[in-house]
Design goal:
alpha+beta, 267 residues
Length: 267
């Protein structure tokens, strides 16, 4: 039976229904809002991207969506503090299309990264995290510089071991530890420079979704096509898609790669 937004909506409501929760389905925009009726806080999910994934793996998509909705509502309903939380602050990479404010209209603390990506900052809560907004930071007596310093320090301590795979004469390294910050490792310049020393061709980097960072040693033109296909595959399958584009890495700078056919970019 073909999956539709309405069918997926019904399945999600069945799994998510609890006392003090309300649901609003917008058929035109294909969205479902789940809200705590006591706090009036909630989350709106876009159903159309999930429908395509559900065609391939319905149960996995529903399980994953239910998990993240429950986690998000739990975060919204809890009081948090930055007091003695220096070790639990991390940078988070998101697409530039990702919202810059939360459900309450509070502006997130962000920093420009590339034309495709933006840096956010998060307080790790164990099984989930809270993106930090400016108001919350100021209420806790912190300054943005303190958040950035703690985030950079904690990022540098994260596990960055990569699995490698050779394809058509090119080598691809995958970091996917599932710690919630794999894509953020693109911000660890010390690690990127270390990887650069072992790369004999051109170095490219991709962060198609939040739970993977790909480093590519591009040794021939076919490598660009392979990287593009990998990035698109990861992008369409990830829970938090970031960008299907890849980046060349030179002298600490990231330059987007636009790949057409089997030609090397800019040729």
């Amino acid at each position: 039976m073909k999956m539709t937004s309405k069918k997926l909506k019904d399945m999600l409501i069945e799994r998510l229904e609890e006392t003090n929760r309300s649901f609003v389905y917008n058929a035109k925009e294909e969205t479902l809002r789940i809200e705590n009726t006591m706090t009036k806080k909630g989350i709106t999910i876009s159903l159309s991207p999930l429908v395509a994934k559900a065609e391939v793996s319905k149960e996995a998509v529903i399980d994953e969506t239910v998990y993240y909705v429950n986690e998000a509502l739990q975060v919204m309903g809890s009081d948090h503090s930055l007091n003695q939380q220096e070790a639990n602050i991390y940078p988070v990479i998101r697409s530039t299309s990702f919202p810059t404010s939360n459900q309450d209209g509070e502006t997130f603390m962000t920093e420009e990264h590339t034309a495709e990506t933006r840096i956010y900052y998060a307080l790790d809560l164990g099984t989930t995290y809270r993106l930090l907004d400016i108001n919350f930071i100021e209420q806790n007596g912190w300054k943005p510089e303190m958040v950035k310093h703690s985030a950079a320090s904690n990022l540098a301590k994260l596990y960055t071991s990569a699995k490698s795979e050779s394809v058509a004469g090119n080598v691809f390294y995958f970091v996917s530890t599932k710690d919630g910050y794999d894509a953020s490792k693109i911000l660890n310049t010390q690690w990127l420079e270390k990887m650069r020393t072992s790369i004999t061709g051109e170095m490219a980097v991709a962060v198609p979704h939040g739970d993977v960072c790909i480093i590519a040693d591009i040794r021939n033109n076919t490598g660009y096509d392979i990287l593009a296909q990998m990035s698109m595959s990861f992008f369409t399958s990830g829970h938090v898609p970031i960008t299907a584009l890849s980046f060349l890495y030179n002298d600490g700078e990231l330059e987007p790669i636009f790949i057409l056919g089997k030609n090397k970019p800019n040729e």
